[in-house]
Amino acid sequence: MSSRTTPVLSAVRGHALMAVAALLVALALPVGLTSFTANAATSSTSKPATTAAKKATATKKTPRQIARNLVTERYDWKVRQYKCLRALWARESGWRIHAGSPSAAYGIPQAYPGRKMGDGWRHSAKTQITWGLKYIKGRYGTPCAADSHQRASSWY
User: 39 CB contacts (<8 Å, ≥6 apart)?
Assistant: First the structure.
């Protein structure tokens, strides 16, 4: 053995011994205490914050999910209407919140001017979708009627 490999081997052996010791401690302690010993360096307040962050991430809805909920719950339209809306806004904006230009047609429904969608219009999918569905209902009655008009005339 050369002097170069000896420190490496001893380091590997040291890590292996630490892993075995940690395993033995984990097996010997009750389940509730193992998480405490493993997370001794973190404070007890960081765990709820992590859980809250996970919930916030898990409950954040995509624009399509927001639209589907509004179509079926607020407007009481059938799933067919959502499918028409999905196709319409896929052609108009690709369901992108920032599609277009703030000084021209903007957002998921391509409102012109964008500011008429109300507070939060630049960055809020819900604001844009809510405005777009209200516009469609008032002008065409349903998303399928708006989709049909857009296919025939290239605008809605």
Answer: 47
Residue 60 in 3-state DSSP?
A: coil
Instruction: Please state the length of the chain.
Output: 156
* Identity of the amino acid at 4: R
Segment 95-141, tens digit of pLDDT: 999 999 888 999 999 999 999 999 999 999 999 999 999 999 999 99
Token look-up 């179509």 returns 71
Instruction: Write down the pTM of the prediction.
Output: 0.63
Q: With contact defined as beta carbons under 8 Å apart, do 108 and 96 qualify?
A: yes
DSSP H or E run through 55: helix 46-59
Helix residue spans in the chain (DSSP H): 5-28, 31-38, 46-59, 63-69, 79-92, 125-139, 143-153
